[in-house]
TrEMBL record:
This is HxlR family transcriptional regulator. InterPro entries: HTH_HxlR, WH-like_DNA-bd_sf, WH_DNA-bd_sf. It comes from Porphyromonas loveana. Gene3D superfamilies: Winged helix-like DNA-binding domain superfamily/Winged helix DNA-binding domain. GO terms for molecular function: DNA binding.
Amino acid sequence: MNRTTIEDAVFPDCPIRNIMARISDKWSLLVIYTLDKSEKEPVRFKELQRQIPDISQKMLTVTLRTLEEDGYVTRTIYPEVPPRVEYSLTERAKSLLPHINSLIGWALENAGAIIKDRKEANRR
């Protein structure tokens, strides 16, 4: 999937689909949430990778670049040997956090019923 150009075939000038597609992919919300919940901010790449053990190095890199392009994450590079790179949330991402937390709360409240419905649907 081209992560930079997502257009709605019916409404190509509508930016909402583009924005929603980029933040609701498999990893973006999890990376934002993990950066927020990190005890120390900013967070180095390897620490972020340790906190999300099932994400590959390549996918984490792609996700962080996309979040940086959209203004959710700031990347700071320190001219050291070896180079040190740290990531932190921008104010835009912080303004998204209450919505992410609401979604997590909703998922927790409804998880049991959703799993039950899935099992019933699979039995049919």
